[in-house]
Amino acid sequence: MERKLKKHPLLPWWPVLLIGFGGVGAAGAAARGLSLEEALDLVLAQSAEVRLASAGVEQAAAEQLVARSQLYPQISATAGYTRTLKSQYSGLGNSSSEPDSGGQGAPADTSSNASFFDDLPFGQKNQYSLGLSLSQNLFAGGRLVAQKRAANARYRSASLQLAMARAQALLEVTRRYYDALLAEELALIADSSLVQAEGVLSLTETTWKEGQKSEYELLRARVVRDNQLPLVLQRHSERDQAHLRLKELLALALDDSLSLTTGPETPLPRFALAADTSAARRVPVRQAQEGVAGTEALLRAARGERLPALNFNSRYSPVAYPRSGLPGKGDFRSDWTVGLSLSLPLFTGRRLAGSEGVARSQLVVARTRLDQARQAATLEARVVHRDLAQAAASLQATATTVEQARRACGIAQLRYQEGLSTQLELSDARLLLDQALANQARAACNLQVARTRLSLLSELPLSGGGGQPASAPASASPAGAATANSAGSF
After folding, report:
1. Residues 6+ apart with CB under 8 A from 291
2. Does the pTM of the predicted model rise above 0.85?
3. Residues with Cβ < 8 Å from 131, sequence gap 6 or more?
4. 313 and 454 in a common domain
5. Alpha-carbon torsion 97, 102, 103, 104, what sign?
6. Span 84-92, mean pLDDT?
7. Three-state DSSP class for 213?
8. Which DSSP letter does residue 29 get?
9. Whose CA is closest to 274, among 465, 16, 457?
């Protein structure tokens, strides 16, 4: 039988495929070194969630100013000018003429009338007015103090939200960084398997030409090599996708090539394992507590609508009516008033009862969510500790497995070279080694992510989404709608 086989069509161009899957922009450009510490600093500066949370803190601080301002005097100044084109009072200063003894009319003396009407505001062509007003809330049934407390709770809640956003961004970039590291490691394992398959194929071709191997062995070696190609392409594609996701999170140019410099075994000094993971220390629980405090304050504000409100006001308004041009120093006349106003709702169509009902229902929701947050935080702490212990045990177990699998693969390769075993035995040994290496890499990355999650646990949001703060009433009353709205929702 003639020992001739056609060269496989994939052989000349599969290295070109691997180069093409090496990453966009990788060719001809130096890879940018990126450590995990640098990635952590970048994500805090680039994260959209962190920027939104920072804006929420600034908004809550501004709402605090609005709520506090109602406790202080309100002073405002006004100035106005009015030009009268035609008035109903024109001509009142002129009297009609009466006939004398000679039958001819003589004008009457109107100087006194004209002078009298010139000093009055009626129908004057030029009117200048200045105003200075002062208003001070003396008693508002506790509404203003309650709204200030609600705004303070909203600010504390926004500050906690910022802490959660920062912790979530740090955990997310850590996950993506180690996902990229794992994808690189899996791609290297696949490349190594392909290189070994090429070596086995080359050895089999040599021994086949010498008549020591059958055509079946050669075909099998070639099929094993060819079957490894799709896996290599897949691993390279997964590596590139992991890099793209990391670059997207860090707002880096997608065409840049990255070189990850932090290995899975590198310790992370920034993240110290949390000693206390109790529910009371969790930021989501504390945020839910602020939600309860703010909703209680708005309930007190709604109840305060039933009480009388006392307000002091004063207004100083100089006015001038010059005949022409600008007023002089002596043209202004003083107008100064002071007063007290008392308001008491007598009948509002049960609007106040409705506002109280809304506030009470929101308080029930806030307290319920606080209980849910505590329960979820307690459960999550146990899950995180369990995941860390499992990751550590898995990494420890894979260390021995990799050594045994590597030694078994070396023995199988030597046996195959000496003709003491088949390709099936060698392929099984290589497959077991690849699985052991992949499990070791995955366990090392999972351990680092689990450590990071535990160190950030007190500031991370609840994984189940429970314990989110309840929404506060939109407003405690129409009169205080602006202030209550500025207090925000919890």
Report:
1. 153, 157, 366, 369, 370, 469, 470, 472, 490
2. no
3. 77, 78, 79, 80, 315, 316, 317
4. no
5. negative
6. 75
7. coil
8. S
9. 457
